[in-house]
Amino acid sequence: MGPLLGEDGFARCPWAGGPGVMRDYHDHEWGRRVSGEAAYLERLTLEAFQSGLSWSTILNKREAFREVFAGFDADAVAAYDDADVERLMGESRIVRNRMKIDAAITNARATVALRESGGLEALVLGFAPTDPPAWHDTAEMATTSAESVALSKELKRRGFAFVGPTTMYALMEAIGIFDPHLIGCHRRGR
């Protein structure tokens, strides 16, 4: 399926059809570069929490995630202890999955450790594809790439968790490592 024309006259990737949180995310954030450690840690954390769930679920809980994870300040989250994990497990405004909560804390600690060798942002950017994809329809789209597999392995080697190749591919799309929009989508190339 290729881009769909919305009621507002703009062609979009088909998952961003009607008005609402998904279309807002598509039009204003997905595929755009972010910068800074907190922005990268946020996206990495949210992609991990999304695993097995719909992205709209995560977007609708995003402000709560930002609140309970201290704005994704790596130092603050890295200092979370067992009491914080229990607090988060009782927080109905987020996805309450102990493995994912533990991974968020583990990843904050690994992010702090990465500062000695250039930081999370530099590491992720180092896996940008040399030949970015350009798809016409969703049937052509991939869910992993050689780069996402390599990024996953490197992050795991550096102590990160919940960073499989598919999750890392979604991260690369989300933060604009390459332009993920379909050819014909009004956001492509912007």
TrEMBL record:
Zn(2+) binds at C13, H26, H181, C185. The keyword Glycoprotein does not apply. GO terms for biological process: base-excision repair. Keywords: Metal-binding, Zinc. It comes from the Bacteria. The keyword Zinc applies. This is DNA-3-methyladenine glycosylase I. It comes from Nocardioides agri.
